[in-house]
Design goal:
The chain is of the alpha/beta class. It contains 16 helices and 17 strands. The protein has a 9-stranded mixed sheet, with helices on both faces. A 6-stranded parallel sheet has the order 14-13-12-15-16-17, sandwiched between helices. The radius of gyration is 23 Å and the shape is globular. Bound molecules: adenosine-5'-diphosphate and alpha-D-glucopyranose. Adenosine-5'-diphosphate binds near residues 19, 21, 327, 354 and 378. Adenosine-5'-diphosphate binds near residues 294, 326 and 380.
């Protein structure tokens, strides 16, 4: 079985969030389940890609609406994943420092998808499955079915995985010229609410649709940023398959990014050393329980509510420390800087993206806050569990599916609403737990023991692939 994953992100080459972690890990586990998985992604100018040698696999010219692009397909020369990952280089279009956020993103990603399909069409052995991830690759299921240029791929099943339905990549029909010629009687497959909507097109055209947790799949049928009716309509071909984590990278016993490695037997002392490093570096008191948040400051993550909740809590109770790592909305960044001034010694924030610091926070924090309004799966809570850090989550999406409250014999603390009141209630429960050392340690240990590797999910994907192929 040969599967090709097409994605805009892949760790460690290019990462904005969890999508990269998934694409960096899932193929490795698929190999172990006799699925030969490859990843095709854009060649960006990220630090990782700049500092690694690449070799050219092939080169070709791509013409879209009389515009010519020179495309190179590259492979990493020396890397464990060299045979798995293929990079599409289109000079001046894709090879930029950031992954998203340019004015011409529509042209960047439609051209990327065209380059991917043009290349695959020329393979001697066509893949058994094309597996697309999020809206940047959402036009592929339409194009393989409807564009004569890719008719060689018409019978290849496409799977579309929704990692985040908030972002759908809509653009005006005026830009239809960015797609190769297709039968205009079928233009409705591209359309949602008068726009070309790559996520909607993928949900309509892919042979199967998956989301990254079962609860998120159910939630999407009620609320999906305008696509709820479509998702309800397509529920027969939709499945929830929970993400896993890569335990080779996320392992406190071997993680080279943390200050002190530790195991299930040494976690109390090991975590303390990591906590001391954070507290010394950020002016916090290591004797107090440390609550952390890591993530993008966007509506879905409810970082705005968290900031207000922390402010209100610290006004009357200073028996805790809070450390935040992230970036996003400038309004939230500003609010957090104000809290940094106001609660020196109890609160600090590192604005920006910092992979090493994130590992150190998972290792050193006592509790990880995730009050998300929307969380398709969430990986942070799984990393936290593996590092003996107790997740405090809102019951939504993947958080609901992976974190059972300690009151129900689980490994975390959960609340219903993304509200100040509920966050305060959970923090108070965490503070009581922290004082009960033996209970606290036993919950930490129980969380560390859980197996959230990709094994189970790789098998679910395999079953899904088999349902659409004859192999
Ligand atoms: P999402 O993909 O919605 O951002 P996930 O929980 O799936 O959420 O994954 C987030 C990933 O990004 C995790 O690996 C997390 O550690 C990482 N991450 C998020 N923000 C930062 C940051 N500011 N610095 C370093 N890593 C971050
Ligand atoms: C998205 C979601 C996140 C999920 C990740 C990987 O970015 O927001 O919840 O874990 O994709 O699937």
């Amino acid at each position: 079985m040969q599967v090709v994953h097409v994605s805009a992100e892949c760790y460690p080459l290019a990462k904005v969030g969890g999508l990269a972690d998934v694409i960096g890990a899932l193929p490795k586990y698929q190999q172990q389940h006799k699925t030969n998985a490859k990843v095709i992604m854009p060649f960006y100018d990220t630090a990782f890609i700049q500092t690694h040698n690449t070799a050219t696999v092939t080169e070709f010219e791509l013409t879209i609406h009389q515009k010519n692009y020179t495309v190179s397909v590259l492979q990493l020369e020396e890397d464990a994943m060299m045979d798995t990952i293929f990079l599409i280089k289109i000079p001046q279009l894709l090879d930029r420092e950031r992954i998203y956020g340019y004015e011409d993103d529509v042209e960047r990603f439609t051209t990327f998808q065209n380059a991917v399909l043009t290349w695959i069409c020329n393979w001697q052995d066509l893949p058994d499955i094309i597996h697309c991830h999020d809206h940047h690759t959402g036009l592929i299921p339409f194009m393989t079915l409807q564009c004569p240029a890719y008719s060689a791929l018409k019978t290849i099943p496409t799977i579309f995985s929704i990692h985040n339905a908030q972002y759908q990549g809509q653009f005006s029909h005026d830009k239809q010229f960015l797609l190769p010629e297709f039968d205009h009687n079928h233009v409705g497959l591209l359309d949602w609410d008068g726009m070309i909507n790559p996520m909607a097109a993928a949900i309509k055209c892919a042979w199967k649709v998956t989301t990254v947790s079962t609860s998120y799949l159910q939630e999407l049928q009620k609320k999906a940023n305008g696509l709820e009716h479509l998702l309800a309509h397509e529920k027969g071909k939709s499945f929830g398959i929970l993400n896993g984590i890569d335990p080779d990278i996320w392992n406190p016993a071997t993680d080279p990014m943390i200050v002190k490695n530790y195991t299930m037997d040494t976690f109390a002392t090991g975590k303390k050393k990591n906590k001391t490093w954070i507290c010394d570096s950020y002016g916090l008191d290591p004797e107090k329980p440390l609550f952390a948040f890591i993530g993008r400051f966007v509506y879905e993550k409810a970082a705005d509510v968290l900031s207000a909740a922390v402010d209100a809590f610290l006004t009357h109770n200073k028996e805790l420390s809070v450390m935040i790592l992230g970036s996003g909305s400038t309004a939230i960044e500003d609010e957090l800087r104000i809290l940094q001034e106001k609660y020196q010694g109890n609160f600090n924030v590192h604005i920006g993206y910092n992979e090493q610091l994130s590992h150190r926070i998972y290792a050193g924090a006592d509790f990880l806050l995730m009050p998300s309004r929307v969380e398709p799966c969430g990986l942070n809570q799984l990393y936290a569990l593996r590092y003996g850090t107790i997740p405090i989550v809102r019951e939504t999406g993947g958080l609901k599916d992976t974190v059972i409250d300690m009151g129900d014999d689980g490994v975390g603390i959960s609340h219903r609403h993304a509200s100040i009141h509920d966050i305060h209630h959970s923090i108070n429960r965490a503070l009581s737990l922290y004082k009960d050392t033996s209970k606290y340690h036993s919950i930490q240990k129980k969380g560390m023991k859980l197996d959230h590797s990709w094994n189970a999910s790789a098998q679910h994907y395999k079953k899904l692939y088999l349902s659409v192929t004859k192999n």
